[in-house]
Amino acid sequence: MKRPGTLTLLTVTAAGLLTGALLHLTGLPATGDAVWALVTGVALVPATWWVVSALRGGRLGVDAIAVLALAGSLAVGEYLAGAVIGVMLATGRALEDHALSRARRDLTALYERAPRSAHRYTGGAPQAVDAEQVRPGDLLLVPAGETVPVDGTVEAGTALLDESALTGESLPVERAAGEGVRSGVVNAGAAFDLRAVGTAAESTYAAVVRLARQTETGSAPVVRLADRFAAWFLPLTLALAGIAWWSSGDAVRAVAVLVVATPCPLLLAAPAAIASGLSRTARRGVVVKGGGALERLGHARTLILDKTGTLTVGRPEVVDVVAAPGSSAEEVLALAAAVDQVSSHVLAAAIVRAARGRGLRLPRPDGVREKPGAGTEGRVAGQRVQVGKARPGPGRPVSPWERAQRARAALDGAMTVWVTVDGEPAGVVLLRDAVRPDAARTLRRLRAAGIGRVVLLTGDRAEVAESVGVVLGVDRVLAEQTPEAKVRAVRQEAERAVTVMVGDGINDAPALAAADVGVAMGARGSAASTQAADVVLTADRLDRLADAMDVARRSRRIAVQSAAAGMGLSLLAMGVAAAGKLPPAAGALLQEVIDVTVILNALRALRPARGTRTAVDAETEDLLRRFEVEHVELRPALELIRQTADELDGRLAEEVPGRLEQVRTFLTERLLPHERAEERRLYPAMGRALGGPEVTMTMSRAHAEIERLVRRLERHLALAGDGGLRAEQLDDLRACLYGLHAVLVLHFDQEEEAYFSLAAGAPA
Which residue did the predictor score with more confidence, 684 or 259? Predict the structure, then answer.
């Protein structure tokens, strides 16, 4: 409840207390007592109003004790005690209001910085208009340093964006032409053109603003506990005061008991700590809809996760490009991406993104035609290129190579896009919705924070869900679930323990509403899921959930700790006062110290804390980013090793020796220098961050195995000499190449999960 004029009340009561003291010191005690009595009366008016307001709301808090203490001080002539109580009451209310306003500051900033205007091109020149006037399809100019007003796509060039206010990410991100940009982010680079895809009211930032307006301290269970606590604390106080009066015959003792019993630290500390926790989650890119949701999040013991878009990135990514005999993976990907440049299909976008990410030049296609359900075809450099479903020519049987790729795709749970050139298969692109790089570390953090059971709940196929569950080590996998089945599963888990459900799709909304705490991946999730959820992650990172849980547990712990300490001290002081050892004035001063102390302690929840997150310094984070980018550049070439091993058969095709030399060059000139640089620079930094050099021992052992296998490959090439490979070399050479590929893929995955996921920004 908002208490108007608390700062004014504090000023008046404090000034009156000091004035009365000065009058006593100057030999005017009667006038000083009159001033103190006036201060007591001034404080009694709002205190009575707070009690009446609470009663209208169906609550009887310990503000009633403050009223009795103030009235009792006037009745027995303890004017100094009454004045001190008045200052104490005003100070507590002012501190609480400050805590709440500071806690709301980060949430308020979300909608205060909402874009109000846009620069829309009219007649070839940008004109300033209200953001509400922008319509889908409008071309906008986003000047440097300004906030993007609506969701859209980059029209040309590259946009450098600061997304920290929206997502909590500290590093700027780049968006290339055709990539989406969300409203609310700031242009951190040069001006760029944006093609609007929606109105301001439909934009991402507007949705976040609506969520922020729903966010308030609420009445968390720990706060309601305070109200229940007051129900027995008030009678206890009155009984103890009555006993002290009856046993001693001195009403002053009863007033002293009332003085040290008011106000209750529980009612001040709990809301301040919960509100402070809401502020901390907002700073981490997490919108929590009320203190109740934050408190329940801190109690959670079961975590239910949707797969697509939650544990996975939520969009297909190219995981491999397998070239048919006689072709290269780079050539296959470049041809496929060249044709798919004009396609709007989600798989086409993934192929083009992968080609550009590998720095491939994409020639302009001619005569492109898109056939729904079949794919795209066109001419590239005079060749007829088809990209899509496999279409064997009439009379042409399926080759063993094609059957092998289909079997591999089925085993990997991957989607296939076939590339044919002039009617002959040139290769196949394998795509999969990859597991988020931060997923495994986040689940470990959540378990460390108190989650005892993790359930994967998805509508996807069982074999795909099981493969993800095995990688992440979940306790139970429920696959091929309908929305109704998801709701039943969530309710069953909620009967056992406080349950958190995380999802992002429209079909997840009912399950989110059924959970004790629903968490929506709001960065790319549906509007239905964000509205149904209690918590929304505005950043597209699952680890923000672990951050929010850290904050929730810490806030509740601080609230209970502050309240318990304050109440314990108050009860001890009440006993001393009942025994006649603590006069009202001294008791008032003591209670003031207790209340201020517990409120200040509750405000500790505003300060950042590491929680389960492993902190890394700026220098180490720069190293992580550098080597992560190198991984992105090196990964495509790893498939060259596997492809070369596949081609090592008894026929000894003429191109194999050249391919082996290409593999050797990649390994010795690019890969090994990367691994040695990691060993020299990254691993010591990781040892310092993670607690000692032992944590990198397994990674260093992998480096040693990689180097051993590379040396073995070099010896094979030296033995072959000018005469070429001998038949007796094939088995060992093939095992060496397959071993290298397996070790490298596993090692890259381990480093990305264990080390690179520690970086605070978005993955490279």
Answer: 684
Residue 652 has pLDDT above 50, yes or no: no
Tokens (6 digits) for 93:
């209310």
Q: What is the pLDDT of residues 606-639, one digit of tens each?
A: 777 767 777 778 888 889 889 988 998 888 788 8
* Separation CA 714–CA 139 (nearest Å): 57
Closest to 16 (Cα-Cα) out of 30, 35, 42: 35
Question: What CA–CA distances, in Å, run from 422 to 326, 327, 383, 392?
Answer: 14, 13, 6, 12
pLDDT at position 525 is: 54
* Most confident segment among 310-319, 484-493, 564-573: 484-493
**277, 508 Cβ separation under 8 angstroms:** no
Token duo for residue 83: 């004045």
SS (H, E, C) 319-352: EEEEECCCCCHHHHHHHHHHHHCCCCCHHHHHHH
Per-residue pLDDT, 301: 93
Cis peptide, bond prior to residue 673, ω within 30 of zero: no
Burial (CB count <10 Å: 0-12, 13-18, 19+), residue 143: exposed
Burial of 235 (0-12, 13-18, 19+ CB in 10 A): exposed
CA distance 343 to 371: 10
Lowest mean pLDDT among 218-227, 429-438, 596-605, 736-745: 218-227
**Would you say 520 and 532 are in contact if contact means Cβ atoms under 8 Å apart?**
yes
Query: Backbone phi, then psi, for 126, in 5-degree steps?
Result: -75, 135
Q: How far apart are CA 363 and CA 354, in angstroms?
A: 15
Q: What are the DSSP calls for 112-130, one per residue?
A: HT---EEEEEETTEEEEEE
Chain centroid to CA 270: how far? 25
Residue 373 clears pLDDT 70, i.e. is over it: no
Contacts 24+ apart (CB under 8 A), 71-77: 71/44, 72/251, 72/254, 72/255, 72/258, 73/40, 73/255, 73/259, 73/584, 74/37, 74/40, 74/41, 74/44, 75/251, 75/255, 76/251, 76/252, 76/255, 76/584, 77/33
Contact 481, 505 (CB under 8 A): no
Q: Is 3 helix (H, G, I), strand (E, B) or coil?
A: coil
Task: Judge if pTM exceeds 0.85.
Answer: no
Per-residue confidence at 655, pLDDT binned at 50, 70, 90? low
| Cα distances (angstroms) measured from residue 449 to each of 279, 481, 515, 548, 720 | 20, 28, 19, 11, 57
Identify which of 252, 267, 266, 264 has the alpha carbon closest to the alpha carbon of residue 586: 252
Q: How far apart are CA 528 and CA 534, in angstroms?
A: 12
Question: Pick from 199, 214, 237: which is nearest to 587 by CA?
Answer: 237
DSSP 678: I
Residues whose CB falls within 8 Å of the CB of residue 514, separated by 6 or more in sequence, listed in order: 487, 490, 491, 494, 501
How crowded is the C-beta side of 461, counted as CA atoms within 13 Å?
9
Q: DSSP label at 178?
A: T
**Active-site annotation, residues:** 306
* Residue of higher predicted confidence among 157 and 106: 157
Work out the widest C-alpha separation in the chain, in whole angstroms.
Answer: 118
Q: Which pLDDT does position 681 carry in this prediction?
A: 92
First vs last C-alpha separation in the chain? 46
Structure tokens at 244: 């002290």
pLDDT in the model for residue 530: 64
Residues 687 and 696: beta-carbon distance below 8 Å:
yes
Does residue 739 register a pLDDT over 90? yes
Residue 85 CA to its chain's centroid (Å): 44
Can you point out the beta strands (E) in 131-261?
Answer: 139-142, 152-154, 158-162, 173-176, 180-181, 186-187, 192-196
